Amino acid sequence: MDTVKVKRESKNKIRVDFERAPLGQRLKAKFLNTFFLKKVIFLIFKLVLLVGVSYVILYPYITKIFGSFMTASDFKDVTVILLSKNPTLEQYKYIIIENHYFKAFLNTFLVSLSISLIQTVICALIAYGLAKFKFRGNNIVFFLVVFTMMVPQESLRFSMKMFFQLFETSNPIGAMLGAFGAMETGFTNTLIPLYILAFTGLGFKNGLYIFLLRQFFRGVPDELEESAYVDGSSTFRTFFTIIIPLAIPMLITVFIFSFAWEWTDNFYTSIFFEVGFFDDKNTTLRFMSSITGVPESLKASTRNLEAYASAITGTATILIALPLILAYLFVQNYIVQGIERSGIVG
Questions:
Q1: 279: buried, middle or exposed (CB in 10 Å: 19+, 13-18, 0-12)?
Q2: Given a cut of 70, is residue 14 above it in pLDDT?
């Protein structure tokens, strides 16, 4: 006890002596020492590292943004590096008009919204069953769910295409369905495969959504459900009236992930839609992935000028990503909150 008192009095004495010392001595003692120099060097190192990493990450995006305002002549001029001599919006204009941006925007929004809602509900039901119900094979099913997250999506391309080709009238299953008025070409060039994958929980990213929701549901106390069962509530009623309200932040997170995937998808559309399907000007079904081509009026300018064609594709990418960026500004708190409550780090 006396030792603590002596140390405290010594510190107070040192502080008083320091405050009474001349300003020059105080500055010298505070800044001209090894500890302060080490701290300054470490801060400079962190700043340089942060600037360098930020430059490497952001530079490709900066070049795309500035390149979207360039003309074909800018790419021929060797003196133009980043800033255009004659900035223009012609790339945006031609993509919006000739590539039918707003039609693609509306179609993609409706399809992404409906599929994301379906996937969120289906994945929540599957995850709740895996988290709260103990049955034989539970761990095996969950292992298969996790395994789907490890499979490269390109390895599923051929198998998915072959499966849905079974419904064409040239195959026995498709011929049987054709007798009931099914389409002769099966599910080709339709949205049916996308909705089948959503309703069955077999979409490529559904394994991730189920994993996140299962981790969250495992953190919900069992006493809440037991109290509801004692009061006579059924399993589905308990799920929708008690569990779902608790899981709103996590459900919003999963919905956003699903919506973003569907919004930028060109994996499924390249499988279920024939090559050149979106090139038809009369087609009413367009997605964001179909606007990345070079507009007809600019093709003459892009001949033998790959940099300009790449800039046009980059401009289309900006128009595709812009709605997601704006949406993220409003829902970022839900994403952070959902990840924190998922228990994924526990």
A1: exposed
A2: no
